[in-house]
Amino acid sequence: MAENKLIIDIDTLVNKAFYALPDFTDENGRHLGGVYGALFKIISELKTGGYDSIKVKNPETVSEYIPSVRDQIEYFSGIWTEIAESLKIDPNGECAKSEELLSALSFRLSLLSPGDGIKAAPVFNCSIRATSDLNEVEDIFKKALAFGEKRNDNYVAFYVLYDNPPKGDNSKDREVIGLSLCFDENEAVFIRAENFITPDYLGQKLSSLGEKVSLVTFDAKQSYKIFEPGEIKNRTTGYEYVFSKEDGMIKSLDTSYENSPRLFDVLIAAYLINPLKNDYEPSDVASEYLKLNLEKRGDLFGKASIKEANEKVIAEYAGKVSYICLLSAPVLYKKLQKTGMLSLFYDVEMPLSYILYAMEKEGIIAKRDELKIYGDKLAVRIEELEKSIYEAAGCEFNINSPKQLGEILFEKLGLPAEKKTKSGYSTAADVLEKLAPEHKIVADILEYRGLAKLKSTYADGLADYIESDGRIHTSFNQTITATGRISSTEPNLQNIPMRTELGRLIRKVFVPKEGYVFADADYSQIELRILAHMSEDPGLISAYHEGEDIHAITASKVFHVPFEKVTPLQRRNAKAVNFGIVYGISSFGLSQDLSIPVGEAKQYMEKYFETYPGVRQYQDSVISDARQKGYSITMYGRRRPIPELKSGNFNLRQFGERVAMNAPIQGSAADIIKIAMINVFFALKRENLKSKLILQIHDELVIETAPDEVEKVTALLTGEMEKAASLKVPLEAECHTGNDWYEAK
Questions:
Q1: Which long-range contacts (CB under 8 A, 24 or more apart) does 461-469 make?
Q2: Are the C-beta atoms of 636 and 347 separated by less than 8 Å?
Q3: Exposed / middle / buried, residue 466 (Cβ in 10 Å: 0-12, 13-18, 19+)
Q4: I need a surface site. Which of 48, 536, 590, 688 has the fewest CB within 10 A?
Q5: Closest CA to 341 of 260, 285, 275
Q6: Strand 187-192 vs strand 127-131: parallel, antiparallel, or unpaired?
């Protein structure tokens, strides 16, 4: 029997078809959508998939499926058995593709057809082939160029397929298996990286192609290992933005994406359209925008090496991903255009994806020996705290067990407890923080927890991520957070501790290369400044233009005392109110933060809104606007859906209101730091400097700076950050240099 065999698992196919199609029933009420879709899928695969034979596998059990699906699985099994018997073939064996088989399947499909009431499930009407013939590959790229040059919206889709990492390997370096290309809806080609067709060769062909045609892919950052987009390669300047009085938005002056080829990333586009979903895969884009079913990479290959997988399976997956990219790009483009996010996509998110790749590639040096010394220091203090806690408790117990800890604190020692639940007493941080000022054992427990996390997460955990070059190459993610902020994983460098001195000392482990220094700059109160701009409150704007301590100015105005007589406590309270207002804090939340009665916190907030009435008007308007539209929007057009505002649950609606107040501010701050990163990157490139941008931590940028470039880099860094946005109040960035990250910060 032929090797090119279509294998069908009846239960899987019928179940997928059931959920992919609108369901329908026959005159007896029997569900048929799954059976109809499964038959349609098999016929389409046999006609277009290049198969020579088929094997249909009956399920061993169907108990995991809902009753209507179970019934359809059994119904389909019966249909297949009848077809096999009529054609005198083994229903459980392999049979050759034939006109008789296709005719029998089509006849059964016609009997089930519901007429115009339902549409057939879309299928991959695209043949996929593989090649590693150099002459043929050259010809394919020539055809792609000829097609793409005709029109700016003639996309050439590609997908770089990487191998899975070996088990336990934290390195970001993955082997390139091959590249798929698709610029014809009827065909996709998978090009295996072997012999003369090296990853470098494929990258050079892509780079040349990208300078003249519009490329599209999924997760562009993963492809930059082998190619550089034309818009990055040929650019030496950042982007200029202006404030539009018409709609209050900030817009880019660059509209070159409208008439020049650009790289299009369907992952980033899908994320911008729906930022509440943070784990997009090609299969999600396929189902959401094309109604196509695509197997997930993990389901197909697992965690084993992809090189060992079946060649046809590899080619099919990579080819289908590029096909999905080709078909979804125009759909996503129109959605971005309709929502006003094209400029945000092309001028911020797309260049940023390359800059994040460049930062990941550079990495940051982490001294393994210093990490161990730091861990040892933590271990000494942790042991001291353990002894102190055991002594205060009068016995030894598992400090990490909430149950045992609750019993010790609230039963044995009799500390005041919140209501006991079935699972025991709550020992959450907010509960213990209320008790800590009065009870040393609780303060020790909180310190113990913090240091234990420091040791496990950083002192011990970071060592696993130091690669052979002595550097940690974190992954920067731009499609994770709903607000647009960049996150960091493997390892997470965004959460390096700053609250305690012992926590801050971890930064001493991170150093620049020999002879270099770190230049570290961060924005001063960027979210408060954005609040002043967006609320247009005269008092708040004036306070920033006075150039004094904003928290002391607020305290002076709220508490009606002369500026020079503001006490440290009044300033601290004003600071809590300032930042709390940005996040839509409630009077209860403020009372918890300041350890004061709710009534007193409410008075603070009322005085604040009396002082800055424009802030309350702004908050009311953005909540009303978001409730009406269903989303909030930043100054740059980034949307954040807020479905909670329409919830029947009071607490969810309250959460939605806080999101509506904060998302435009936090999202605008995220947009501004991204623009700053882009402009800093191109400025370093334009000046042909050796210094490299290596880290972004929220509102902070770090450059590994050459010794002869320190003055130029510090001026460049602060200058580009401060002019990244033109607001009604000045943006301020402070820059420090040092021989390690601790010293620079």
A1: 461/491, 462/366, 462/371, 462/491, 462/509, 463/368, 463/371, 463/372, 464/170, 465/170, 465/366, 465/490, 465/491, 466/366, 466/368, 466/371, 467/170, 467/171, 467/172, 467/363, 468/171, 469/363
A2: no
A3: buried
A4: 688
A5: 275
A6: parallel
The count of C-alpha atoms lying within 13 angstroms of the C-alpha of 734, restricted to the half-sphere facing its C-beta, is 6
Main-chain phi, psi angles of 100, to 5 degrees: -65, -40
What is the rounded CA–CA span in Å between residue 491 and residue 620? 39
Name the pTM for this structure.
0.81
CA distance 350 to 252: 14
Q: What is the DSSP letter of 309?
A: S
Q: Which residues pair with 307 in a beta bridge?
A: none
Q: How far apart are CA 265 and CA 220, in angstroms?
A: 6
| pLDDT tens digits, 395-439 | 999 999 988 998 898 888 888 877 676 677 888 887 888 888 888
Express each pLDDT in 572-594 by its tens digit: 888 888 888 887 888 888 887 77
For 64, residues 6+ apart whose C-beta sits below 8 A from its C-beta are none
Rg (CA), the chain: 30
Alpha-helical segments (H) within 173-212: 199-210
Residue in 742, 236, 702, 721 with CA at minimum distance from that of residue 474: 702
Picking from 266, 140, 143, 152, the residue whose alpha carbon sits closest to that of residue 212 is 152
DSSP output for 376-430? HHHHHHHHHHHHHHHHHHTS---TT-HHHHHIIIIIIS----PPPBTTB----HH
For CA atoms 281, 285, 291, 294, the dihedral sign is: negative
